[in-house]
From TrEMBL:
N-acetyltransferase domain boundaries: 1-152
Protein name: Ribosomal protein S18-alanine N-acetyltransferase
Family membership noted in the UniProt record: Belongs to the acetyltransferase family. RimI subfamily.
GO CC annotations, alphabetized: ribosome
SUPFAM superfamilies cross-referenced by the UniProt entry: Acyl-CoA N-acyltransferases (Nat) (SSF55729)
GO molecular function per UniProt: protein-N-terminal-alanine acetyltransferase activity
InterPro entries xref list: AcTrfase_RimI/Ard1, Acyl_CoA_acyltransferase, GNAT_dom, YpeA/RimI_acetyltransf
Keywords: Acyltransferase, Cytoplasm, Ribonucleoprotein, Ribosomal protein, Transferase
CDD domains linked to this entry: NAT_SF
Top EC class of this enzyme: transferase
Domain of life according to the entry: Bacteria
Record EC number: 2.3.1.266
Pfam families assigned to the protein according to its UniProt record, in alphabetical order: Acetyltransf_1
Amino acid sequence: MRLEPLRRKDIARCVEIEKILFPGDDPWSAWAFQTELDAGNFYLAARPDDSDELVGYAGLAVVGRKRGEYETSVHTIGVVPEAQGQGYGKALLRALLERADELDAPVFLEVRTDNESAIALYERHGFERIGVRKRYYRPSGADAYTMVRPARTRADEVAG
């Protein structure tokens, strides 16, 4: 698999995938993806080694002005159903976490409380549940857990 920066020409495919993955909620529009890229957020595309087909994407927002003040938030991770279970989601998440680690930043995210496979993936990567957002997803009204992975510093890497 290849991970590379998400390109503007990938946005239409991202929107198609959103509609497949989140039919009962409000899938992201092309405008939403465009806004994320325009803001300079860290977005990646996942493709099979032998194809330019987009099979997954992920995005990380960064706020703060300098090291020690940064916070990051996973805004999205999506993988087409036929490619799920093949390591794309894990690879995308790890790439986002590496970027957060470069900034010594904690990572926050929201995940549906009924998305057991995603919750398990996040917990395996050091995330903890810190709260519940009632009726977070619209229009379904599904709840979300807020999760956080504390900042990882260079000292943590040496010690770990």
